[in-house]
Amino acid sequence: MALSFGVVATDSGFPVYATVVMSFVAYAASAQFAAVALLAGGGGVAAAVLAAALVNARYVPMGFALGPSLRGSRLRRAVEGQAVVDSAWTMASRGDGTFDRTYLFGHSGIQYVAWVVGTAVGAFLPALDTRALGLDAVFPAFFVALLLSEVRDRRRLAVALLGSALTLLLVPFSPAGVPVLVASTAALIGLRRSRGAA
Amino acid sequence: MSAADAWLVVLLTAVATFVARAVGPLVAGDRALPAPVTRVVVMLASALLAALVVSSALADGNRLHVGADTVGVTVAGLLLWRRAPLPVAVVVAALVTALLRQVGVD
Questions:
Q1: A99, A152, A155, A158: which could form a disulfide with A69 (CB 3.0–4.6 Å)?
Q2: Chain A residues closer than 8 Å to B43 by CB
């Protein structure tokens, strides 16, 4: 995944060093893929960053859940919270509302190194004829993988379908980047109460 | 895409990510997020990723275009749904797309 981010980002016109630095300073696969895809598609800086921020919004409730399991001052806890990535957070959860802080740091730390190194290797690979090699299918294939890991219940499925439909409707009429951002309003389905699940 | 734009996106994405991860631990303990807000926020990733699948596999600028890459991505999606490993699905997506282009499908 890291390797592909490096390959695909640079092949879509993102500068090599910016690609590597992005993995180094952001460490957020879905958000990075989203930002690069929107910028490469002509959506502009604002749309790219907004999309990344919206993809990252899930870290806010994850951080709220994690907060009491961290240690030290508020500032230190905010820094410790930077270790949150989906897989580490999920596996560090003890299932009783508390988290294994040490496990979170270990899992996240190893993954961070792999993410940065993998990105660098992919970014420095020589440029290829992306269309002939079918590499333009790699970005969307990743989005499909991320989406499938995200859609765990019927409500998320409904949100995903509505988001897709909004995008399909808007693509022919709106500037690049706008359809994806408008599609995020599908998340408002979450306002409806569900039986038990949150 | 200009290099300056790319670097700006890198910087702002990093800041946005830092803030998203910092907010919870900074204020947790005092209060939880209101439940409806949490429910919307956890839905955001699904909405955005679905939109990104559609716009990256089906849209070509302002044109909706079903092409070789669309087929490749669909095959990858089926493989992933059948629990194929991610690297396999990604390679197959590129392979199918490349083969279709070889035989003249755009």
A1: A99
A2: 155-156, 159, 186-190
Assess whether B22 and B59 both reside in one domain: no
Please tell me which of the candidates A59, A75, A159 has its beta carbon nearest to residue B46: A159
CB B56 within 8 A of CB A143: yes
Same-domain pairing of B84 and B61:
yes
Domain limits of chain A? 2-136, 151-198
Length of chain A: 198
Residues 6 or more apart whose Cβ sits within 8 Å of residue A87 = A107, A111
In whole angstroms, give the CA distance from residue B70 to residue B74. Answer: 6
ipTM of the complex: 0.84
pTM over 0.90: no
Residues 53-92 of B with CB under 8 A from A: 53-59, 61-64, 68-69, 72-73, 76-77, 80-81, 86, 89-90
Give the number of domains in chain B.
2
- Calpha distance B79→B96 (Å, rounded): 13
Answer whether B24 sits within 8 Å of A58, measured CB to CB: no
Q: How far B30 CA sits from the closest chain A CA (Å)?
A: 10
